[in-house]
Amino acid sequence: MNVEQVYKDANALLDGHFLLASGNHSARYLQSAKVLEYPKKAALLTDALAQMIRDAGVEVDTVCAPALGGVLAGYELARSLDVRSIFVEKKEGGMELRRGFEIKKGEKIIICEDIITTGGSALKAAKAIEALGGKVVAFASLANRGFCKRIGSNNTAKPECSLPEDVPLFSLDDFTFEMYAPQDCPLCKEGKSEAIKPGSKS
Ligand code: ZN
């Protein structure tokens, strides 16, 4: 599967001149929710992800996603793995399990996101699960922004990655884009366009 092409076809991978939340500029932007608009396409992605997890021999009882971003990917991955799907939600300083969801002591859980950037939310989800006695056996995401090292990639983890090194990360592909400080941005220097905020209504 050409994962990048799937994202492009879904208009989830944008080319242009973007102003990121960090204040930096970039020529590419991943609008990760767009690739999940069509459930059947989403299922193709999570089927491929599930196969990677099975091939690695990782046993999973339950998929847990950090809300809101990870919920759809986590639900579809649970379907692909034929296991249970739950999610955790934000609370002050972390994440927690609500809505009557329960986990058993020693339950093998994979934390699933749509996209892993530095892995901050995934780590908070993992801590919430471990505090309840669950065992986090892996992290998973459809896309990896290249800060953390996924299984099968030659990239190395960057200091920004907050995921533990001893737990595998399964992800379909690396989407590593260059980011520029505004004063160093080559697109600004060309002078043909202004950086726009992706996802804004204008
Ligand atoms: Zn720029």
Explain what this protein looks like in three dimensions.
There is one protein chain. The protein is of the alpha/beta class and 202 residues long. It has a single domain (3-190), classed as Rossmann fold (3-Layer(aba) Sandwich). The chain has five helices and nine strands; from the N terminus they run αββαβαβββαβββα. The strands form two sheets. Strands 5-4-3-6-7-8 form a six-stranded mixed sheet, with helices on both faces. A hairpin with a 5-residue loop joins strand 1 (13-19) and strand 2 (25-30). The radius of gyration is 17 Å and the shape is globular. The mean pLDDT is 94. The site of zinc ion has 7 residues, from helix 5.
Features:
three-stranded antiparallel β-sheet; 202 residues; alpha/beta; 5 helices; binds zinc ion; Rossmann fold; 26% helix; 9 strands; single chain
Question: What's this, in brief?
Answer:
The chain is an alpha/beta fold and 202 residues long. The protein has 5 helices and 9 strands.
